[in-house]
Design brief:
Helices cover 20% and strands 35% of the residues. By secondary structure, it is an alpha+beta fold. The protein has a single domain (7-211), classed as Cyclic phosphodiesterase (Cyclic Phosphodiesterase, Chain: A, Alpha-Beta Complex), CATH 3.90.1140.10. The strands form four sheets. A five-stranded mixed β-sheet has the order 4-2-10-11-14, with helices on one face. It is globular and about 50 Å long. The model is unreliable at 213-237 and 239-246 (pLDDT under 50).
Amino acid sequence: MTQLPGQMTNRWQDRAEPRAGQGMLYWHILLGESPQVRALASIAREKLAPFSGLHFTPMRWLHMTTLAVGLMDDFTEAEIGNMAAHARDFLRDIPPVTVVLGKILYHPEAITLAIGPAGVLDTVHDAISAAADGTPGMSKKTTRRELWIPHVTLAYSTTAQPAAPIIATLGRRLPEHTISVDCVSLVIQEGAERLWNWQPIAKVLLGAPAEDGLQNHLPRGHLGFVQAGGTFIGDGGCTMSARWVV
């Protein structure tokens, strides 16, 4: 995404996706409740309104993908729970991270917001990857990418068209905003990607102390999860109903 594309392409033309009722498991940094991120997305939507062939990310599900774990069918509930517990342990020593948004990145399949400064979220990504790698039964099934470039996708391309008019209209930079990233969420994405049938099932707080009271509410076995509808309000808009809060 560092070079400007000459042509936009259809993201879903030849893309393999889960079938109806089948879920993919992802670690995401959910940003739909961030006023700053929503404001940037709104500017992009308004400027790009004249163009067809763009599928905009719903405001609710603006996000940064941190790790594609794999198909839900490949994992047991115990494996998923153990991975979330490992993520809690790894992220406990990482404080909330301040990131900067505003720069636009272009890809043949998408228009995105860059996350700066470079490498600012590497420790979070490394912790989530280590949690999956350290969970028996999960590491060999987890999707890996050699290079992780954190970004927030504003719109996906659904057709072939020249990129230059889109780039000229939106530009290379929007107003700069700073936000705090303070949690990572485990999300089931069911069915085709563009349906946005998402279910957050767990979230892990950055820098949460070991004695955090959430671990003592309605424990799920030995893992200390908050069950069914547990909600935690953290700094930076990390508020979400979830099956587990770690």
